[in-house]
Prior knowledge:
Layout: H1 2-33, H2 37-52, H3 64-82, H4 103-115, H5 120-131, H6 136-143, H7 147-186
Amino acid sequence: MEAASMASSGKVLDFEEYVRNRQDALLRSARRLVPDPIDAQDLLQTALVRTYGRWDGIADKSLADAYLRRVMINTRTEWWRARKLDEVPTEQLPDASVEDGTEQHADRALLMDILGVLAPKQRSVVVLRHWEQMSTEETAEALGMSTGTVKSTLHRALARLRQELESRNLDFHALERRERGQERCAA
């Protein structure tokens, strides 16, 4: 009984040390998968609970980050599939809110908002390739797909993001022209 307790204690300490050392990077990964900070924390916690149960099965602990990212992606996909469709289609997208007024925050908010137009699989590929800076092969391994699928999914995702940015840019310029026209009429 003592040996089992000692082994279990070693597992807990090993896992706790891993989480302590990697928690900031893991939370950043979660934040890239879901835009809401609270949801990102929930996603990470759920993934950690699921990973803890399989911690001894990860033979090479240097792959723990990749394993945990995969668990987060799978969990996020489960949540996405299970959610009710509370969204209402609309012609005009709401303005992205900027809390602190810095350009960097505005860019990040826009990027997070635009990532929302992608399907979960496309978002996962974009996040791993461009934010996590994983190679095509590493992304394919983490997502359980071929490198060709990663490349084609990334190509389609980036084309969709470009299209969304262009659309928003055209909407913005039309709004600016309309506002300038109203200012001239008022003067």
